[in-house]
Amino acid sequence: MKETLDFFAKKLIDWYLHNKRDLPWRTTRDPYFIWLSEIILQQTRVAQGTPYYFAFIAAFPDVKSLANAPQEQVLKLWQGLGYYSRARNLHIAAQYVANDLDGIFPSTYKGLLELKGVGDYTASAVGSICFDLPTAVVDGNVYRVLSRLFGIDTPINSTQGIKEFKALAQQLLDISQPGTFNQAMMEFGARFCVPQNPNCNQCIFQFKCDAHKNKQVGSLPVKLKKLKVKKRYFNYMVILSEDYHTVLQQRTQKGIWQQLYEFPLVETLNQVDELDLRKEPQFDHISELYGIDTLTLFQEKAVVHKLSHQHLYTRFWIAHTQSKLDKGTPFKEIHQFAVPVLISNFISNFASFN
Fold first, then answer.
1. Backbone CA torsion sign across 221, 226, 231, 234
2. Residue 45: which H helix or E strand, with range?
3. How far apart are CA 117 and CA 101, in angstroms?
4. For an engineered disulfide with 143, which of 97, 156, 178, 261 has Cβ 3.0 to 4.6 Å away?
5. What CATH homologous superfamily does 230-353 map to?
6. Residues identified as active-site
7. Share of the chain above pLDDT 70, in %
8. Per-residue pLDDT tens over the stretch 7-60
């Protein structure tokens, strides 16, 4: 078994050193930059996350500048990446490091886990890359490589699977260069052992791979079925006064888009027309507050915004009012607010029509 493990580590690292991408966070071992890149790349492809990484390090060159920034500025920079709890946790963790740890990142696995938003994967990545901690990373890429190579059909999102794959990754880890090994494993999964149609005939592990030998590449890794996706129906009231002011509200309750801004919202059980919308209690409340006169549907077809656990069927209603909006915002200024991407897209589309 030891011979197999040593062979795997050597072969993988050799492949990585000859094929790795030139990524900006690979030129440093500074834990601030590594941690920032890892948080951004959770649930995000490298191509999408890289511009955000550059934007963050330009705005916040160190952890103290990030900690001292207003949360709204952090959320605005994050806009479009989704999973906004990552941005809120990033800010909280930065404040903890800056204020409680005097700007010095923890150098132990346990200490890294104490940072808000940091779990086993991120603690293992930062710890191994920055501090040579012998902790193996396990993410979607690693699950894919290991399940195929060793023919493991234990569901990767089961309690047993999480433990089994972590233990195997730890066994394989080259403890003399854990950071390089971990990056090699992730790189190989991201670029070679890809989810669909991997080029197995060119794979460095072709003759060692159980899935390739048994024609199971397409069926591994195994994942338990997700819960049924919930459908929700959002009707945003885009209040417009005669002087072209509008209303944005901050979502303070827990859940999706906490602390982001949105137009007044009427959520319904299904898609409704104007007559049924006006019967909703939420609409009555909004109409009383802002004196809505006329409603115009901006676009007949709902925008479907897909999240991991729910699909949002969203329509925007232009609600004209003759009332003066005492706490209104000039419409031309709303692009400055941190909003969900579906609202940002609407603002851009609406501006192009006006």
1. negative
2. none
3. 17
4. 156
5. Nucleoside Triphosphate Pyrophosphohydrolase (3.90.79.10)
6. 38
7. 97
8. 788 999 999 999 999 999 999 999 999 999 999 999 889 999 999 999 999 999
